[in-house]
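Weekend entry, working from home. Most of the wet-lab plans are on hold until the incubator is repaired, so I used the time to fold the two sequences that have been sitting in the queue since the last round of cloning. Logging both here for the record. First:
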Amino acid sequence: MSVIVVCGATATGKSDLGIALAKKLDGEIINADSMQLYKGMDIGTAKLSVDEREGIVHHLLDVLSVKEDASVAWYQTTAREIITDIESRGKRPIIVGGTGLYIKAILDDLNFPDTDPTIRASLNLMAEKIGAEAMFQRLRALDPAAALAIDAQNLRRVIRALEVIEITGKPFTANLPRKESSKFPDARQFGLVMDRDSLDARISDRVDSMWEKGFVAEVDALIPQGIREGRTAQLALGYAQILKYRDGLFTSEQAREDTKRATRQYARRQETWFSRDERITWISPVQPRLETVLALLEKSAPPIKP
């Protein structure tokens, strides 16, 4: 029974398709959105409510506090164990999300070197001197492909990528495996694609809806829980902007508009990252998504490039 992946940029409708597939194929869903791992980060991550999950079991939602930081290695091990458990019960594992590196960690063998304390300390010192943006530009110069996979504001991951480059003498992405090293060679990946204008409009509407649903109040509730202490959670799209609003650096409207801008940029990076994987079959909005995926699974059709 092959693993199914539903991937693509934010706001393209991945969650809805995942639910529909799980209902048709007796599946369970494994979250592959790095920010939906966090408890209390619901509105800003567009996390499905319990009712919206329609009785479908979801894994790797709400498993970390906002103070904790997830690693790709931890996610890889945990997600693969869940896949084994799902398959042992005769059900279909369906991976749904837009964090490309997490999906690749499930499917392929990522073998990064252990951390080097001396190099890490040197990079941390450099970051203190030149700042997060300059560190990201350094990564972009050394490995443009890695810059597509890592949020410019996520200094922890930028530093880790630079550390791997320095330790190995190779680009960070050189440590990513080729498709022939896939852990799940029979996995079927389906990417949701949308024209840029339509996707931008959906992103704008989604952010407006988040504000109306109480996004600011959600962030306020996370402050006493330690979101400012979490190196990853505090940098999440929208959360970072609202924290700046609470610090007096943005107005509420500026925080909202900057969230839209940053989300559009993130969607572009997601599209570029996923477009590099030839194993993904792309589904456009004009196609009936569920029916198209089911037909392709039935025919075992080869991937179609976007």
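Second, folded right after the first finished:
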Amino acid sequence: MFSFYIPTAALNEQKKTLELLGENIANLNTPGYKTRRITFVETLGTVAGVSQLMFKQGAVTYTGNVTDLAIKGDSFFIVKKGEEKFYTRAGAFSVDSSGKLVNVDGYVVQGWMEDIRGGSEAEATSTITDIIIDPDLIMPAKATENVWLAGNLNAGLESTREVWATGSAFTKKATLVSSGITFPLNVTAGVNDQFKVTFNPQFGETITEELTLTAGTYNDIDSLVTEINNQINASDLKGKVEAVNAGGSLKFRAIDGYSGTTLTLSSGTNDVLSDLGFVDGVSSTSGDLADESTELNDLLQVTTSLVTGDSFNIVGKNRGGESVSGAFTYTDGATLGDLVDTINNIYSGYSTAKLENGKVVLEDDEVGDSSTTISLSASDGNTGLMSVPSFVNTESGYTARVSTSMVVYDSLGESHNLTINFTKTENTGEWNWEIVASSGETIVKGGSGKVLFDSNGSLISFIYDGGVDALTLSLSNGAEDLVIRLHADEQEGITAGITQFNAVSTLHTKHQDGKESGTLNDFKIRSDGAIIGYFTNGEEAKLAQIALAEFANPSGLKRVGGSNFISTGESGVPNIGKAESLGSTIESGSLELSTVDLADQFTKMIEAQRAYQAAARVISTLEQIADETTRLKR
């Protein structure tokens, strides 16, 4: 009896080979597809085909789609449908309407989700779960806790005081004051009734007049002054020299108003000069700088003597910008020092006036920026006439200040713009600092302090006033109080701190650790499988970690369609971990191509076809032999 079993079995197995080759060729362009082959083995005198998965790395092609993933290495993606897990190399993933990362069959990619609120990174030993990329994900706000400062404070900066001074100096007329007169003074004609006055002007001819007093008894200075002026006015000295009561003393004064005019007294024929308290030849020249004791009417600037009740208006602003005003009222014998005292009373607590080289100088009591102004003017209706020099700003108040702004965030994510000012003090290497807040913040404590540098420009200390170690702000929007530590020293990896060198100031805020809230704007997938989200607040955070699996024998995996596999006893249990721990890398925006070699498949197809034809010929030959044998028996 002829056996058809063996060639029939061979025929069936070759048919299976052709079917498998057709499947391979059909999946030529299927991402992640692994070629299968049939290996023939002898079994109890017949032949059987065993299907094998040929696991090897496929070529990687770039797609540009961020959710297209290709594995380089021996690992598999893990996807889940319901409670069943599958393994695949086909990384053509997408994000579905619920935010899940899925494959083309809708199976959800597995991994570990991260807590973007700042929790610890998910461990690969924990249970894997669905990876979800929620487009509505919000990065929570984080209140600023630290601000790091950097840059240089110019050591060459110096603060100055605001200074105003009269544009010209006050100068004195030529004056001669008696050393003393004994009253009553008896003047006898032909005995002691004459003295000479010489007026030598800067411009014009010299005038010398011998004045003769009316004989008689003079009981006081006023009667004597009246008599002398009567004699002067009756001579060529009228309008050029006058006698005045200077607080009980006799004073002669040149009144032409020009610097350089000389006034001289000398003995007359019947000399009375010594009785008047002068020595022969005593002289004075106009134009000397006035001092605080100089009477106002002795000033060259006074062209008509002031009288009691004449006044001068003093108007301006103090260094803080507040308006100030007052008046100086003349009384008999008032001096330039009296005018200076009045100015000091008006600017008390802000600026100090003094007389320097004949000029009235108003100087701020403190260095720094200033709004100080001053003007002096004669009141309308004054009897006397005085040419009042204008005040000019000779030195502007300047604060040696270096400033920078900083944006910080509260617990609600609202930003607050603060300014920190560093002001140079008069002490070497010392600066004061102060925080300036806006209307929405109230500084509770820690808003000012000092910073000290050594002789090499290096930071010694950054100190808060009040013995605190942080700035505390109370906010009007309902957020928690902000407690911020300012760092001016070197922080490795963050800032080099602040210095003080004689170079341009470059102070700036290097870094702050707060942030506003933000929504997910984009994401990328790194080579280690970490999914990094980018938020509208400029922050980034790890959203999830893709899990991979590896098998001791990946060829033992069972194909269940759709480029998906399940584990078997031959493949072994999966070892699940991160890409880097499994010796694999993930390329985002790429796909692994099918490992099908078309030329090789065609070659194997021809071989299978020949084997199939040969098996069919064997069966046909056996049929002919059987028919012939049957005929012989007949």
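Plan for Monday: verify the second prediction. The chain has four helices and 49 strands.
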